């Protein structure tokens, strides 16, 4: 686990920041404003989570031409249908997961590794799963640059994880239906957190193993693109 109080091992030469962006944007101030005006304002109170997001350089996880906008209240398109969720939505999902220092975490939709890095500061170990091989490579480079040692990026699907079980499963994207295949990956005291589409709105769900199946809780409404987009039949209006 990466200690919250320790400095981030961030090596600037590893990233080619455009001079006009790097020197014009005060990322420290932007990061503080993100916490105060977006994350805390959305009801996130978990101190370890706030501390982690307050020190992690989000700007290295977004496309180069958007680094000056890294801390805005919006998602960032990463290409090939993948995205980095907005800070508030990610934080609310992570808080709902109630990550402990002893937890083994599976994160679906790792993208360039931002969520993986945040979760690694809270958990014992994080496996970030990313289907896009180019993004998976970027995520590995980002985690290496930040000296995150208790996380691994896997390029592939859940089927590539053999029979591993996890204390927390966090899905960074909306699903179309209840994730029955993922629920079987939970440990006996595990939590699975995901957004599930209900028409045009997605609802945050938390699942826990119970005596007679899985207990389901619904929490807040949010908007994120589908993690695994499904082609719907075209609708005609007469």
Automatic annotation (TrEMBL):
It comes from the Bacteria. One of its GO terms (biological process) is methylation. GO terms for molecular function: methyltransferase activity. The keyword Transferase applies. Keywords: Methyltransferase, Transferase. Pfam families: PCMT. Belongs to the methyltransferase superfamily. L-isoaspartyl/D-aspartyl protein methyltransferase family. This is Protein-L-isoaspartate O-methyltransferase. The lineage of its organism: Bacteria, Pseudomonadati, Pseudomonadota, Alphaproteobacteria, Hyphomicrobiales.
């Amino acid at each position: 686990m990466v200690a919250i109080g320790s400095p981030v091992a961030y090596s600037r030469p590893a990233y080619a920041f455009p001079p006009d962006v790097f020197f014009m944007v005060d990322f420290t101030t932007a990061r503080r404003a993100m916490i105060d005006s977006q994350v805390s304002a959305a009801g996130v109170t978990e101190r370890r989570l706030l501390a982690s997001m307050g020190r992690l350089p989000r700007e290295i996880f977004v496309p180069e031409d958007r680094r000056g906008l890294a801390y805005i209240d919006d998602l960032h398109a990463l290409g090939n249908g993948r995205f980095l969720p907005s800070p508030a939505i990610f934080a609310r999902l992570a808080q709902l997961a109630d990550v402990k220092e002893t937890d083994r975490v599976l994160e679906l939709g790792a993208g360039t590794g931002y969520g993986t890095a945040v979760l690694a500061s809270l958990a014992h170990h994080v496996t970030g799963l990313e289907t896009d091989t180019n993004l998976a490579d970027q995520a590995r480079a980002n985690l290496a640059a930040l000296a995150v040692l208790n996380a691994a990026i896997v390029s592939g699907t859940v089927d590539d994880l053999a029979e591993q079980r996890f204390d927390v499963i966090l899905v960074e994207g909306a699903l179309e239906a209840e994730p029955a295949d993922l629920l079987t990956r939970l440990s006996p005291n595990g939590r699975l957190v995901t957004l599930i589409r209900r028409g045009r709105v997605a609802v945050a769900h938390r699942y826990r193993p119970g005596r007679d199946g899985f207990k389901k809780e619904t929490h807040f409404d949010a908007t994120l693109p589908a993690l695994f987009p499904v082609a719907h039949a075209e609708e005609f209006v007469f």
